[in-house]
């Protein structure tokens, strides 16, 4: 779906989330601080987006493919708007307190809810490109 908001560039500090993405869904995310979330345009909401991410840390000049979720996490009955980025790369450590810069290039789908994590996994297997699954290397 085309939005006049794309490409959308932003950056924010990585903060500790509730730990569900990595532990329950096997898809760790970098959770953006509230200031970054507050700056999002209203057209970027309740959706899953694709683009590129760069961690602003020493000795890492890589730009990584990523998927970002923006919304209230209806699967968990969330009420607070969040922005969480899954970087398609396996890291050996956490980056809490570091800055991540992203560019959203487009929307993959609208936010939806699932009855269980298993149903979510099945959805990914049916509708996702295998290269873009959270478990991709």
TrEMBL record:
Domain of life: Eukaryota
Keywords: ATP-binding, Flavoprotein, FMN, Nucleotide-binding, Transferase
InterPro entries assigned to the protein according to its UniProt record, in alphabetical order: Riboflavin_kinase, Riboflavin_kinase_bac/euk, Riboflavin_kinase_dom_sf
Entry keyword annotation includes Lipid metabolism: no
Pfam families (UniProt xref): Flavokinase
Pathway linked to the protein: Cofactor biosynthesis; FMN biosynthesis; FMN from riboflavin (ATP route): step 1/1
Domain Riboflavin kinase residues, every copy: 3-122
Gene Ontology molecular function: ATP binding; riboflavin kinase activity
UniProt-listed Enzyme Commission number(s): 2.7.1.26
Listed GO biological process terms: FMN biosynthetic process; riboflavin biosynthetic process
Gene Ontology CC terms: mitochondrion
Record protein name field: riboflavin kinase
The organism of origin for this protein: Rotaria socialis
